[in-house]
Specification:
Number of strands: 9
Largest sheet: 7 strands, mixed
Strand order of the largest sheet: 1-2-3-4-5-7-9
Number of helices: 11
């Protein structure tokens, strides 16, 4: 799979320029791009006025959908629901209402399966994690999202996508890695703590958050794919990402979710010198997984 830095020929440039960028779309349009044409229907949208009751109390204007767009439709003719996080509102942070919308959608999807309706769940992650203004409530609802994903996994693949520049951090990074199948672009970042947080807490000698090359070499989409922490790496192309989502559902429920392979990852960590400066090249060589091209 080629990233933007690997586009060389005129024909490849034409293909690159002709693509429809997924990253540049808003949350609602991202959801629509993944669903069968003409099938998308927004539920609990802005006119339902599900705002955060906590932000105005802190002098922050709430948004009518609290930064999460839920869309029903079909994928390859099967019922589907897409929960898309809007990074433009509060950095995609998870507050009580935003998180409850995602958890509720996943729980209703489980109810569909228990009634014999094979609804396909997709989560579009673009989030810095918990919304600090709603701290404990946000953390609690993120835990509900985790539980809902795990409960759904035996019934259907839960497909996650991390596409854009905000990335996926904090408790929501755990939600992403709990998904049955995780798709990223080269521009994506995935980590428990963001680079700025690490620099702030541990100092610039630990990590220079302004060193973009280093950051992406550690937690960028290509590195996460090469080290087996995500399943699919695709270019920033709406059609390519939609095709990857369809392929994930076609592949079915994984025999062993990544998050259950605890012993494998503990062995890898035990063999890695965590006291030394992180070496992305060495990590990629040691953790390279079959099928990873980079």
């Amino acid at each position: 799979m080629s990233g933007p830095t690997h586009v060389h020929t005129p024909q490849e440039w034409e293909t690159f320029l002709a693509r429809k960028s997924f990253i540049e779309l808003g949350a609602a349009d991202r959801a629509v791009a993944l669903l069968d044409a003409g099938s998308a229907r927004v539920i609990l949208g802005p006119f339902d006025r599900l705002k955060s009751p906590w932000l105005p109390q802190q002098g922050i204007v709430a948004q009518a959908d609290d930064g999460v767009v839920l869309t029903r439709g079909t994928i390859d003719g099967q019922p589907a629901v897409v929960a898309a996080i809007e990074s433009a509102f509060q950095g995609g942070s998870m507050g009580e209402v935003a998180g409850a919308k995602i958890a509720g959608a996943l729980e209703l999807t489980l109810a569909d399966h228990e009634k014999g309706v094979p609804t396909r769940p997709v989560i579009l992650f673009e989030t810095g994690g918990v919304r600090l203004q709603e701290a404990n409530l946000g953390l609690a609802v993120i835990a509900e999202i985790h539980a809902a994903i795990v409960a759904l996994r035996p019934h259907t693949p839960v497909v996650g996508v991390v596409a854009g520049m905000v990335g996926c951090f904090g408790g929501m990074s755990l939600a992403a890695t709990l998904c049955s199948h995780l798709i990223v672009t080269p521009q994506a970042r995935l980590g428990m703590n963001g680079p700025e947080v690490i620099e702030q807490e541990a100092g610039i000698q630990e990590l220079d958050a302004s060193d973009k090359r280093l950051i992406w070499s550690l937690i960028g989409g290509e590195q996460r794919y090469a080290t087996g922490l995500v399943d699919t790496l695709v270019d920033d192309d709406a059609d390519a990402i939609a095709a990857a989502v369809r392929a994930a559902f076609k592949a079915g429920v994984p025999a062993q979710p990544r998050s259950t392979r605890v012993d494998t990852f503990l062995e890898r960590l035990a063999a890695y010198d965590t006291a030394a400066k992180p070496d992305p090249v060495a990590l990629r060589a040691a953790w390279k997984t079959e099928g990873a091209s980079k």
